[in-house]
Amino acid sequence: MKDARIDRRLFLRGIGGVAAGVAAATALGACGTGTSRVSSSGGGGKTVVVRDSGGSYGAALQKAIYTPFTQETGISVKVLNLDNAPLLAQIKQGRPQCDLINDSMMSHAKYAGQDALEKLDRDRITSLKSAKIPDNQITDHAIGHSFYGQCIAYRTDAFGGRKPESWADFWDTKAFQGGRAMCSPDGDLPELEFALLADGVPMDKLYPLDVDRAFKVLTRLRSEIKKFWDSGPLPGVLLSRQEVTMSTVWDGRIADLQKQGVPVARQLNGIRRQFSGYAIAKDAANVDAAYQLMDFSLRAEVQANLAKAFPSNPSSPVAYEKLTEDERNALAGAPQYYDKGFDTDIDWWLKNEAAVTQRWLEWARG
Amino acid sequence: MAALTAAPARPRKLLASRKTRVGILYALPVVVYLLVLFVYPIISTLFLSLKNADGSLTLHWYVDALTGVNLSVLITTLRISAETALLSLVFGFILANAISRLRPLWAGLAMLIVVVPHFISALVRTYGWIILLGDKGLVNETLAWAPGAPYHLLYNELGVVIGTTSMMLPYTVLLLYGVMRGVDRGLLAAAASMGAGRVTIFRRVYLPLVAPGLASAGLLSFILSLGYYITPALMGGPNQTMIATLINQQVTKENQWNGAAAQGVLLLLLTLAGLLLVKLISSLGASAKKRSAS
Amino acid sequence: MAEFGVITPSVAVVGGKPATATGKALSVVALRKTYGDIVAVDEASMEIAAGEFVTFLGSSGSGKTTTLMMIAGFCEPDSGTITVGGRDVTRLAPQKRNLGFVFQQYLLFPHMTVHDNVAFPLTLRGVPKDEIRRRVGETLEIAGLSGFGGRKPRELSGGQQQRVALCRALVYRPPVILMDEPLGALDKKLRDQLQVEIKTIQQELGLTVIYVTHDQEEALVMSDRIAVMRNGLVEQFDTPRELFERPKTPFVADFLGAANFLPGRIEQHTDEHTLVRLDRSGGLLKARRHDLASGTPVKVAVQPGRLRACAIDDGFCSGTVETATYVGTLVRAGVRIDGGDAPLLRLEVPAGRGPVAGERVGITADPDDVNLFAGEQEG
């Protein structure tokens, strides 16, 4: 989830670009000389430091995972909210502040490319098997624990009872009138896949993406897009204020609005899934404890508990069995929905994100 | 002759004086502080912006920053900052002028209202602006009868400038309020006693007296706007992307420090250019005045 | 355009009534101003002739500044009328009254040069540029400020700044110039110097000036007439000599002359004089003829400089010199009068002939210098 984004932006606000550069440079310098490294030998009991993105997600992690973990093992958990860049810099200095990293699988792939992660010993993670983590979420350096998706959200009162079924409907502003909102590169990866799906590309033939075609299709919708959102709550706000009738949205962001009685719904057809996972920082101080916490977190019942506290979708199919039917149906990751969507091709995006982002900006500024 | 012999001896004497040595001692923490937290980061940012991937020196980060989309973003940044500076000056002036005439209690309250938006989270502010300025917002609902409604007040340059101006108002209001409080009301009475009407008093006495405040308030909001990030993102569209957004993207998404550093340095240079410009204008104005007086 | 630069010497005689009372420059009728329950100015009325230098004298809270502010238009009267040159200006805004004003705090425009400050009122009146330059130059010359035109006010001393303020107020020849304690912020020496300068300029240019001060000496030095004010009331509006020698109230006698007061009772009248029996010493005092019935309790007021020491049996009372202080040309003496808890009389006598401490003296005064005020006995 992207809760950290807001915080980072608050930090950047007012300080300004120069200051941001300066501050970041200072942070780098500080990392180099920092003495705040946590060691297991310090104090009484053992400790593990985990990086997560904080916010309401962090609170859910504390409740569903960290506290029970400490109760079970006696190992205390310290939390660190740190951006990718300073974290990477720390690891490269050989003195990471954290042991376990909870981040997107794409970030992990970047870290791994920079030789910043420990190679994982799968034998030390027994819950891989018991939770039946899918093979494609197990890499040499990271294990996927959950995913979030981007899908369609729409106002149920806007289209005379009809509901959009596909990305083609999202693009069809005659049948489904009203403004649209889509994601800006500030919020998430540009939504090229949706354009291609709307243009008739089959879901299993998306990658490698035809960037030219995607932008051509995006151009057809450009004038209807009122706002490119850059933070999770914004699509909900735009929908509830009737600024738009349809928007892309992170799948977990609609339930609260529905509870408030806002006439919105989501369409999971064509959902784009992005996984998050665990990895261990290279030269981490508490590798053993990090393995223990990772193993604990990946257990099916622990993943289920987290899903109850926060709308993220466990990677373990077993976890869904431990939920009530209502809870299960609310999650975009439930097995019955799985064929509706597709997994983001991290490798393709790793290679192309910078260029696509640049092109997106040129396109959007028209 | 005495001066000739005294002159070379002077620097040594200065350092030798006990007072000077103590003074240097007192200044030391500040100097170290500035060196470590200001000079060093800026110089390392400068270095970063000139460094190639292989460590050699290059200007291509600057070429990047000054071509294509980056250039147009830079120009947008300058334009929006200038518009913001102008508008926050106008509204800041009106507000500060009104507040400076209020009783202290009311003035404090009014000031609070101006400052409060600063303490509201970005999300809440977003929501507030949409409620106010959206197509189905308060303004458009009240103006529904008007031709051309609904007006697009959000997600374009107008929206951004409304947002940044509201964020800059506290600075301009506080600054101008201070300057206005410093203007002796007696001077206005004096002008009236000589027969000057309200407009003349405002134009020939009040305005020149608060002019330095206007210059610094305008400059301040311009410079602050240059580095603005969140409000343009909240209230604008891609065409209102500001340079700080690009810097942030490069650092946090692409781990591309060199390009970000180059844009940061450009921003710094623009800020300095702004300062220089205001200085130039004020000194030109002063010399023009002198010429007309003599 | 008013003819300027031709210096018209005033025919006014210092200390006497101005002989050039060609017309009323300003008249104030029954002016009243209250702040809540407090009466700041109570039915003040006066007429001021063109070319006259009039001072409002009083301590703080006497209503002198409020009266001035009402004339200037900075403060609106509750009732009454103000007429300038025959025009009713009571309800006009300050800028429409065409008066000059010199403030205690100078209030020069800090962003303008001295020249521009003085030129300011002329530019408002659409005077051509050449004319402005000429008149500003002449005015600065009168005030001894030639060559200062290019300076900023902050580069001048306090005295110079006030001279500039004066120039600024008179350059456009307003019919009346109001001055609110203009020398209040200056030191004693500079005050004395500027008092003379202002008076000279006023006389040379025949200006009509209303001047506010709390300093009796300043008022006496500068004014043709003084309005002594107390608690919002004009106690007496007269020439300095009249105020000094013929005070109409004990307050005026005390405020201006610092008079000695002695309680007594009217004994009898002769053709030219009134005889007063003093309460404590029982001595008999000869005063100017007053129309007061015999037996009326009175206050006798004699200024220190008008009392004389004499042979012990020749005075209206006698006493012992307690102090004798030599102050240049004068000796200030304190004489304790015989009998009971008698007060200390203050005398000022020319040095050399003065009494010495411990000496027994009689006290006498010219009947013409003795003022009697009917009223309550002094407690």
Q: Can you walk me through this structure?
A:
The complex is a heterotrimer of chains A (about 375), B (about 290) and C (about 375). With about 375 residues, chain A is α/β, with parallel strands linked by helices. Chain A has 2 domains: about 5-145 and about 275-340, D-Maltodextrin-Binding Protein, domain 2 (3-Layer(aba) Sandwich), CATH 3.40.190.10; about 150-275 and about 345-365, Periplasmic binding protein-like II (D-Maltodextrin-Binding Protein, domain 2). Chain A is about 45% helix and about 15% strand. Chain A has helices at about 5-10, 15-35, 55-75, 85-95, 105-115, 125-130, 165-170, 190-200, 210-220, 235-240, 255-260, 285-300, 300-310, 315-320, 325-330, 345-365; strands at about 45-50, 75-80, 100-105, 140-155, 180-185, 225-230, 245-250, 265-280, 315, 340-345. In chain A, strand 1 (about 45-50), helix 3 and strand 2 form a beta-alpha-beta unit. Chain B has one domain: MetI-like (MetI-like fold, Orthogonal Bundle), CATH 1.10.3720. The longest helix of chain B is centred in the C-terminal third of the chain and has 37 residues, at about 255-295. Chain B is globular. Chain C folds into 2 domains: about 25-100 and about 175-250, P-loop containing nucleotide triphosphate hydrolases (Rossmann fold), CATH 3.40.50.300; about 260-375, OB fold (Dihydrolipoamide Acetyltransferase, E2P), CATH 2.40.50. Chain C has a 6-stranded mixed β-sheet with strand order 6-7-8-3-9-10, with helices on both faces. A 5-stranded antiparallel β-sheet of chain C has the order 13-12-11-14-20. In chain C, helix 2 packs across helix 3 (about 130-140) and helix 2 (about 115-125) packs parallel to helix 4. The interface of B and C includes residues 208 and 209 of B.
Q: Features of this protein?
A:
heterotrimer; A: 366 residues; alpha/beta; D-Maltodextrin-Binding Protein, domain 2; 2 domains; ten-stranded mixed beta sheet; 16 helices; 10 strands; disordered N terminus; B: 294 residues; mainly alpha; MetI-like fold; 13 helices; 0% strand; globular
First-to-last CA distance of chain B: 39 Å
- Report the oligomer: heterotrimer
Q: Mean of the pLDDT scores of chain B?
A: 86
CATH homologous superfamily designation of chain B: MetI-like
- What characterizes the major β-sheet of chain B? none
Summary, kept brief:
The complex is a heterotrimer of chains A (366), B (294) and C (379). Chain B is an all-alpha fold and 294 residues long. Chain B has helices at 2-16, 18-49, 60-65, 68-100, 104-115, 122-133, 138-142, 157-182, 185-193, 198-226, 230-235, 243-252, 257-293.
